[in-house]
Each structure stands twice: as structure tokens, then as C-alpha cells.
Amino acid sequence: MSAEISSKKKQRIQDAIVIALLALVALSTLYPILFMLLSSLKGKIEYMKNPFSLPASVSLSNYILLFKQYGVMQAIINSFFTTIVSITFTGFFGALAAFPLAKLNFKGREAVFTFITAFMMVPVAVLMIPTYVMFSNLGMINSYLSIIIFWFVIDLPYGIYMMTANFRSIPTEIIESAKIDGDTLPGIFTRIILPMGKSILVTMIIIYFMWNWNDLLMPMILLNSEKMTTLTVAVATIVGKYFSNLPLLLAGLLINSIPTIAIYLIFQKYIIKGVTVGAIK
Predict the structure, then answer these.
(1) What's the rounded Cα separation, in Å, for the pair 262 and 253?
(2) Which CATH number does the domain housing residue 138 bear?
(3) Contact criterion met (CB below 8 Å) for 220 and 236
(4) What is the pLDDT along the chain (281 residues), one digit of tens a residue?
(5) Does residue 6 sit in the same domain as residue 86?
(6) Cβ neighbours of residue 158 closer than 8 Å, sequence gap 6 or more
(7) How large is the angle between the packed helices 109-117 and 144-167, nearest 10 degrees?
(8) Are residues 273 and 179 in the same domain?
(9) Spatial CA neighbour of 39 closest among 21, 17, 56, 19
(10) Is CB count within 10 Å lower at the N or C end of the chain?
């Protein structure tokens, strides 16, 4: 009986330690966001007097200035348009390529898979100059199509890799039964693969969204027109011009962070499920 009580006490201590560590991790993650929020509600002078104090009075002047004077709304529209279009194409064609690589037997399948996924190893920095020269020669600088194509090409190999691993966990017997029943490959793809692979598809769309939304270098290179700039680039421009006005800068950073945080919080269960299903197989 004494040993059982001692074991329960030890377990409670271990649980308390784990909870305390998790609380510290959560605090370290949430603190920067809370700091940005509180600081963005201050004026420049108030912030300089005491950066870590609560706002004496809530002021939305920094946000009003961003939307009225610095074209943040247009930048938000640009970011949503380019990001959503690119992830739609990448998600669809990634799933379309992953299906045969995961479930169809054809000669050279593994070689094709290796060739495609090898492009994940190519650093983006290496592609900057060739990409700019190529799109410049095509007359596509300051065209939304240029950044959409670039993101599509860069994101696709990773999506194919993850979705292929996940689709392999779908029982082959289901596909064989569908073939016996006379279903075609397009039908199997739309009625079996996509519904059963929904978790990984949503996961990849979320990851693509976060990657593309937060991309700074390529939109800055390919979309250097002020009217076509993305939100991340617009905020970076504010950093360069108004670094001394940190509340204004932090307001811009918070606006830029909200979509990715919201997307992650809403769909986090799909990320966990989508990544682990293929790994377990």
C-alpha cells in the first residue's frame, strides 16, 4: 500500500513538472504576440518611456495610419490573392502527382519520385537571380503570375513527397475493389483518394499558406511595384522607413501575423493527423 502511494505521488510530481514546462513553452510563444499587441496600442513617446508597461490609454492610431497612409489594405488583398491562387494549384497538382506515385505500379516510379523530391534540396537563394532574369526576359516582372508560378514550382516537390507518403497508407484493397466495380482512375482519385487523404491535403495547404504569406525576398524581387507589393514586403518597407517608431512597426507585424496564426489555430488538428498518418504507415 505504501509503495502504491509513493508511486502515485511520484507520478503527480512528474505530471506537475511536465505541465510547468509546457506552460513555460506556451508563455514564451505567446509573450511576443502579447507584447506586439500592447505596444501597438501605444504612442511613440509612451513606448519610449516604458516599453514594458500597459498602455495608459488604448489608441488605434497606428492601425489607422497603416491603412490610410501606407496602403496596407491593398497589400493584404495582394497577399491573399497570390497566396490562395498558388496554394490551390499546388495542392491540386500535388495530389494529382502523388496518387500514381503512391498507388499505381509503373516502370520507373521510384526514379520519378526521387527526381521530383530531390528538388526539395535546392536552396531558394540559388534560384533568385536566374528566376529574376527569366521572368524579366518574359516581361513578367510586376506580374502576379510570376510569384504564383515561382511559389507553385518551389512548393510542389515537398507537397508531392508528403502526400505520396500519406496516400500509401490508404488500403490498396479499397482501390482494387473500386476497379472491380468498374470505377475509373479519375473516379478513384476524386471519390476515394481525395476524401481519405483530406487531412494531408489540408495540412499541405496550411503549410503552403504560411510559407507563401511570410515570404519576403521573392515578392520583393518580382513585385517591386508599390501597388502590387505583398503585406510582408509592405511591413518590411515600414521597418526601413520608420524603425524609430516601434509601435507603428509592431502594429504592422501583428497584422501580418494574424492570418497565419488564425489558420493554424483553426486547422491544427489536420496538421497533426496529416503528418502522422503517413509516418505511422
Answers:
(1) 15
(2) 1.10.3720.10
(3) yes
(4) 555 566 777 778 888 888 989 888 888 888 888 888 998 898 888 888 888 888 888 888 889 888 888 888 999 999 999 999 999 999 999 999 999 998 888 888 889 999 988 888 888 888 889 999 999 999 999 999 999 999 999 999 999 998 998 898 888 888 888 888 888 888 888 888 888 888 888 888 888 998 999 998 899 999 988 889 999 998 888 766 656 788 888 888 899 999 988 888 887 776 666 555 544 44
(5) no
(6) 117, 120, 204, 207
(7) 130
(8) yes
(9) 56
(10) N
pTM for the model: 0.83
pLDDT at 173: 87
Spatial CB neighbours of 215, under 8 Å, sequence gap ≥ 6: 151, 230, 232
- The runs of H, that is alpha helices, within 214-245 are 217-222, 231-241
C-alpha cell of 25?
513553452
Do 211 and 194 touch, CB atoms closer than 8 A?
no
Cell numbers linked to 32: 511576443
Relative orientation angle of helices 61-69 and 72-103, to the nearest 10 degrees? 80
Cell triple for 184: 475509373
* Grid cell 495608459 in the structure block, residue: 56
Task: Give the residue numbers spanning the domain of 254.
Answer: 61-280
As given in the structure block, the three cell numbers for residue 87 are 496554394
- Whether 45 maps to a domain, the answer reads no
Tell me: do 29 and 154 sit in the same domain: no
Q: What is the DSSP letter of 242?
A: -
Class of residue 2 by CB neighbours under 10 A (exposed 0-12, middle 13-18, buried 19+): exposed
- Residue 152 grid cell: 507553385
